[in-house]
Amino acid sequence: MSLNKSYLMTPGPTPVPADILLSMARPIIHHRTAEFEDTVREVRAGLQYVFNTENDILLFASSGTGAMESSIVNCFCVGDQVIIARNGKFGDREKQIADTYGLKVIDLQYAWDEVVQVSDIARELEANPEVRGVIVTQSETSTGVLNPVKEIAALVKDRPDTIIIIDSITGIGAVECETDDWGLDVVMTGSQKGLMLPPGLAAVSVSEKAWRAVERSTIPKFYFDWKKYQSNIEKNTTPFTPALTLIQGLNEALKMMRAEGREDMIARHSLLAEATRQGVEALGLKLFAPPEGRGSAVTPVWAPEGFSAGDIVKIMKEDYGVTITNGQDDYKNRIFRIGHLGYFGMFDIITTLTALEMALTKLGYDFEQGASIKAAESVFLGA
Amino acid sequence: MSLNKSYLMTPGPTPVPADILLSMARPIIHHRTAEFEDTVREVRAGLQYVFNTENDILLFASSGTGAMESSIVNCFCVGDQVIIARNGKFGDREKQIADTYGLKVIDLQYAWDEVVQVSDIARELEANPEVRGVIVTQSETSTGVLNPVKEIAALVKDRPDTIIIIDSITGIGAVECETDDWGLDVVMTGSQKGLMLPPGLAAVSVSEKAWRAVERSTIPKFYFDWKKYQSNIEKNTTPFTPALTLIQGLNEALKMMRAEGREDMIARHSLLAEATRQGVEALGLKLFAPPEGRGSAVTPVWAPEGFSAGDIVKIMKEDYGVTITNGQDDYKNRIFRIGHLGYFGMFDIITTLTALEMALTKLGYDFEQGASIKAAESVFLGA
């Protein structure tokens, strides 16, 4: 067709609502002003609402990886023992960062289609009483797999010298994350995910226990020195030039998220994920994530036997304007991933399933046309 | 669902692409400047491309009705005979305007689900040699019915004192309109239709023959006096303050239309209309427009026996955020209308059909879920 609209169905960057785009298009103000301080105050309160926490929240002009690195360099010393439980590309990255800074990593590595086992962490904590941190990815962007963060946190809660660090970069906004109730010491997210913003901003919540860890940390840091950010919280500003328009946009995003309501927002993501899963299964396709670890941010799907996920992704993009993503690393061309994290509604799922049906038809895969829509409609009508 | 996006599937106003919105959000310039004159020059050339004409094109800060009225007051004198062939709400409006200004109307009235008959016009032209004008709506917004403008124009072409006036307000951009080849003397459109703009701007093309009619017209007019606009064409401006941002937006829209190409744009609309028709028929619904008069701008559909079109429209809007329109006048609650005129792609049709399926399910109508998507997919895949 001579006019194809673009649909961004990836786990980040995600679509930005028009009201947020417009809020970022206002003339630039200076950041050392009462006006901007008001914005920062509102943004912190809004993030505390979304993170379910009364902990301090720090904002960085950085990508999510910057926030990950900041948690390592602020909470530990060279030689500290940490447990890293990893089952995907971003868990791998946590290990790379920990290795870079000389931590002693107790490495719990899982296949990408497995969830992290709580019992393994319990065992390692028992065997290694000196462990200073447990680091887990809540929602793996590379696979959509959801790890049992609440249960893992329960193991750490009563250990005064051990903190739990959660990469919830593709989790916050899409899946339950009860920072205070579950006792999560450090939780981080990036702007281009559930917060519905362009990339360039990261947020990290820090508990009292984590601040005590920060006090003993001796790893050198400057830009990501959490204490510099902490001392600016009361002044409602940031130690270095903030990503001004992104923070303005974040304020608008947080108003939208409050208007929708935290629980309704999580329920919406569950419903979108369920419709996606029922839709692809109705086409005879197989889900990648195990039943006990299916998150609501991304749905990874095996390409049918004899078909390349890359071909499916390519036809959906080039012929229909619908961008989904290929698998990563070992799963490249074997799985494709449909993102539904952030500003998504039911017809984004319908659009994606239809484009998938048309791509599969073009590739010669045999299935019943319309079946995925029928399945998704049933999910939406049953909600 | 707690977040519903909005989908505007009406025959006007129609969705405005982001690039056009942005072009209208630039700081205001003055209209008596070389910069704005350049824009007007480009816009006139672009409109000539879209209208398929070398005729003059006049721009009014008005709705489409203003353009309709302007054609009556500029081309005729009180007491002039005109044939008005009407089969919908906007044909009726042409008659109201002609009556208002004291024209003698030869009234060819048809049912809303009939097309205008060329033979009736031929007969009236023969019987009334003094007829000064034939006025026809090309694409009836109220019903989507397409009238045989080319064939009617052929009857008028060789009559030196008779002009043909075409209301193509919902036609231009969506259906074939060969202004010069078919010999259309006056053709008009409005901005909030195929031109993909907000409302507030109208364009009228005027042939040499029409200008001769203007010369003898004695009806008083000021704001809509075509000669005032004509004398400003060479200066690339307008006699009164132009709708500045809409003209900037129009320039952007015309660039998009040229990039897509006139023929491809018309073909896209045909395909969207065909997918819509096949989709609703697959649900067992009946099309309102007769096979010989199905346009590509709007698809009118009978509500199933025992169901109210108003209920369907209401559920689609309130529960799913998809705005289609009810029938008008006698057809209110009996038909609903799906607009696909302007900035529409295949997934807008898929979204609308899915919302229609879900609304029909809620109302208890019996059909095979997913059938409309299967039918629409086949149309798109066959293109």
What does this structure look like?
- Chain A is an alpha/beta fold.
- Chain A is 44% helix and 14% strand.
- Chain A has 14 helices and 12 strands.
- Chain A has helices at 18-24, 34-51, 64-75, 89-100, 118-127, 149-156, 179-182, 208-216, 226-233, 244-260, 262-282, 309-320, 346-363, 371-382; strands spanning 7-8, 56-60, 81-86, 104-109, 133-137, 163-167, 186-190, 202-206, 298-302, 322-323, 325-326, 335-339.
- Chain A has a 7-stranded mixed beta sheet with strand order 2-8-7-6-5-3-4, with helices on both faces. A 3-stranded antiparallel beta sheet of chain A has the order 9-12-11, covered by helices on one side. A two-stranded parallel sheet of chain A has the order 1-10.
- In chain A, strand 3, helix 4 (89-100) and strand 4 form a beta-alpha-beta unit.
- Chain A is globular.
- The two termini of chain A are 34 Å apart.
- The model of chain A has no long low-confidence stretch (mean pLDDT 97).
- Chains A and B meet through helix 11, helix 13 and helix 14 of A and helix 11, helix 13 and helix 14 of B.
Main attributes of the structure:
12 strands, seven-stranded mixed sheet, 44% helix, three-stranded antiparallel sheet, globular, 383 residues, 14 helices, 14% strand, alpha/beta, homodimer
